[in-house]
Amino acid sequence: MKRMILLTLCLCTFISVFPISSSAYSEDYDWERFKGKNAEINVYNWGEYISIDEGNEGDYDTVSEFEKLTGINVNYTTFASNEELYAKLQSGGANYDVVIPSDYMIGRLINEDMLLELNYDNIPNVKYIDERFKDPLYDPYSVPYTWGYVGLIYNKTMIDDLGELESWDIMWNEKYANNILMFNNSRDAFAISLFREGYSVNTSNLKQLEAAARELEKQKPIVQSYVMDEVFDKMGGGEAALAPYYAGDAITMMEDNPDLGFAVPKEGTNLFTDSMCIPKGAQNKEAAEMFINFMCETETALRNIEYICYSTPHTEAFKLLPEDVQNNGIYYPDLEKIKTERFYALPETTTKQIDKMWTDIMTNTNTSPWLTPIFLVAALGFTAFINVRRTMKKKQNEL
């Protein structure tokens, strides 16, 4: 879902030109206590949401660095959405030691007793995490990894009036029919509709949710495609005029296609935090906590955030970013100047209601909400026309 590339502007950071050695990491932490013990952990993360070696000079491969430092083998796999992660954990089909869900999903996993409490004594680097991005509702189950927010990615050559981007209404504008991409997950899609209607994205009010669902149903006929990772190819290739997506990914797409821009609608948007957690069923909790601590090393946090282009909650890594990144309004906006709301875990009944509404929207095969009445009117008119012709023909025969 959150596919990234290494930004050219980040290559200027001084660490890019020096090889990494074990001395780059905290010397007062026992990184070697698992060496020779055949320890391994299973890590489940968003797609391309960690620094990897792409064969360029100075590339940093997070997983390989951790394995070399600790002797712990990492089985690393990826998911595309919070809902996919949840389904995998709920099914019990695989045991993971570290997962990286978003805030509202962390709340849901806590409520359903699917996470283990962390021993922060094994994660001393948590001291570097900005208090603004910690949430007492999710402690002691998580350590923030990245943060970001949702906005509109648009093609400047395909939007008639850039002023339209000030509101989520543009996502319902019929003149952009078949040029609109929409989130392919219920929580993000409902959030946009709820913001547009002036409601909280954490509402459990059934009437408000039904109103949001009706608007999503009205929108469906003009949506070209419901996407997650596919947004990169479609917007990068000029196949659509606009799409809601995450700010970090918008920067990546704008680097690839200079015709693209990014805007935050006035009605508000979701401010999110993705955090590292340990699910129940973890086979090696202490090694998993070592991995989380490694991810909070300043060196590692800096390299990862340079690569994935999201915003870092790591105070020391932030200080080492180039000034033009620190001052970039998309990377690090003034959160006092944009209206944001965080997602929280919803009651189970509300989650089921949203899932049912979303399934109904996605499985509705009507191409237009007006199709049925139009068809009926046309059919009645045609029937009346035939009856009139038959009557006239009968009268002519009688003459």
Characteristics of this structure?
single chain; 399 residues; alpha/beta; D-Maltodextrin-Binding Protein, domain 2; 2 domains; 5-stranded mixed sheet; 3-stranded parallel sheet; 13 helices; 10 strands; disordered N terminus; disordered C terminus
Description:
The protein is α/β, with parallel strands linked by helices and 399 residues long. The chain is 37% helix and 14% strand. It is built from 13 helices and ten strands. The strands form three sheets. Strands 4, 7, 8, 9 and 10 form a five-stranded mixed sheet that branches. A three-stranded parallel sheet has the order 2-1-3.
Helix segment count? 13
Question: How would you sum up the global shape?
Answer: globular
Order of helices and strands: EHEHEHEEHHEHEHEEHHHHEHH
Strand residues, percent: 5-15%
Helix content: 25-40%
Query: Largest sheet, described in full?
Result: 5 strands, mixed
Q: How would you state the average pLDDT, rounded?
A: 88
Remind me, CATH topology of the largest domain?
A: D-Maltodextrin-Binding Protein, domain 2
Under CATH, the homologous superfamily of the largest domain reads: Periplasmic binding protein-like II
> Please, how many domains?
2
Class of the largest domain in CATH? Answer: Alpha Beta
Q: Which parts are unreliable, with pLDDT below 50 for 5 consecutive residues or more?
A: 1-19, 367-399
The whole-angstrom Rg is 25 Å
Class by alpha and beta content: alpha/beta
What's the count of strands?
A: 10
Give the CA-CA distance, first to last residue. Answer: 75 Å
CATH architectural type of the largest domain: 3-Layer(aba) Sandwich
